[in-house]
Fold these 3 entries.
Entry 1:
Amino acid sequence: MDADEYRRMAEVEATHWWYASVRALLQQLLADRLPAGGRFLDVGGGTGATGSWMAEHGDLIVADIEPIAVRSYRDRHTVAGVVNADVNQLPFADASFDAVMCITVLCHQAVPSPAHAVGELARILRPGGVLCLQEPGVRRLYRAHDRITHTARRFSRRDLADLVVGAGLELDRSTGAHSFLIPAAAAKTVLERGEAASDLDRNASGLRGSLGAVASAERRLLRRIDLPAGLSVHAIGRRP
């Protein structure tokens, strides 16, 4: 990912409506699955915008391939340790963690085989441990922000669920999210054809809070049902 994008993430992670929404959703999906005082890993955690909250539940280790990311994560958040590491070959022993979070990493050009990467994530889970994945959804919605973040692929809900099961994990949850953003993203896909630009430079308030309010309503719905698709897709697996 472009170095400038890490700078943008660090600057807006506490205030941008998107990161607030993603954090709230991940906490809703995962917090009850985290053992108190456990050992957790945030893989490809960037500057900590989406995963740093896990430190409230136990010892959080951060791994990212970019040194600028792990330095920013460490400087801004309380963590038990940071490691410069590649998801394709993680430097951790088998069965090392009670939970692993991996958010918008498998989509990157630097991950030639998502299946291999998820196998690495599953390998380091302890028995009963959980893996939480989030990736950009709807394969055809490739737009300017994807070019800035070096995104090579987007996923369907089924794609992500199949990766979890293929790694030998039991599928606990599979759902789409931020489905209300699909029409706008489809329009941007057409209008931004050939462009490369970050979404983080625009609309940090989420249309003066309206997008955050719709996301909150969607989260209430997700307490009861799974959505078939979304601008994001999620899968949670558990190691037997």
Entry 2:
Amino acid sequence: MKIRVKLHFAQLFDWDDATTLKAYGRSLPVAILVAAFAFTELAELGMLAAGFLALVVFIVAEVLTATLILGVVGTGARAALSIVAPSGSSTPPPDDYSYEKSLLVRGNVGEALTVLEARMAGNPDDPALWLFAANVHATNAHDPVAGERLFRRVREMPGVSKAQDYAATNRLIDLYMGPLNDSARAIAELEHMRQRHANTTAAAHAEHALRQLRGTLAPSERPAG
């Protein structure tokens, strides 16, 4: 078994986070028991020394136990201990981006984007990660241009699934028909949706939208094909 440990101190010591406070509260009895045991074992060193060392043991036990609790409940995935076993019968659960989502909920869009950019630099071919980042740019950061670039990048990745291609294409259509206001590109994406994802509700809607949009463009403006 291969074990990878990740610690993110930003949330582990975020005293405004109710989940973090609950984790420390739940770890308190364990830390007290460990400290009491340590004090008993170290009593021969003298009350002062034993008390000091027991306090150190208490703090360490409290932090480690809280970290483990945060990792187990899965809140703040990168704010706590994460144990991954990629081999054998165990399969790690998919990343739910809970740490980034917690930042977004608190309005820390810039910080969430910084975290995502760092992760994307280390995972240049992770379509799920890039798809999530594209949505953050387009929706939370109100940057449709950056969102468009990332959605297109997702579709170019060798490991992209059909579902991820569907999601990226759907969002590109929204952007071209909305904030980017580019009918020609919207038509190209609707055609992609109609052909790549035939027999879906989105493909049917794309067919209808294509008939409407094509009538609004001059022949010279229509995309090839």
Entry 3:
Amino acid sequence: MDAPWHYGPVCEGKVARTIDEIPLDWCHGPGVVIDIRHLNPDAAASTDDLRRGLEGIGHQLTPGDIVLIQTGNDRHWGKREYFSRGPGVSADATQWLTDQGIRLTGIDGWGWDSPLVGQAREARRTGRNDVFWAAHFVGVEREYCHMERLANLDALPPNGFTVSAFPIKVKGGSAGPARVVAMLDG
């Protein structure tokens, strides 16, 4: 789990929280899975992609929801392509999630942003260097955490479950391992 300190030393104009300072209520709550497996493996899901995904499952986000993004990339675990493919989430969509009161997100890919190979291609094409880790850097303006490298999101219903994801309290750490568990009713 990446803490606000992972994105930069300042968040929302104050010293960014480290992983041992994350409020525990961010780490336990109602889960929702947004499926973006249909996107190009180099894509960054837009706000509209997330909205359509939520509409498709009849879910409206509420503050405290834990949003899990299903890319299907976990099926490539242990293979070289795991690190270079699989859609991520755009900066605009990340900002939109935080605007909805979402403080914890997760993805079943190597990283939250689109793959580094695609970011490098875009930087070369445009001559811009601000394309690198743009969704991560939302965390400089908005306080949130995200988890990467989740697995088995395809085994979950779209909503109606609880997520528990308490990180190890690495003192002063920008991130920490977390055991992420989905609890299904009944």
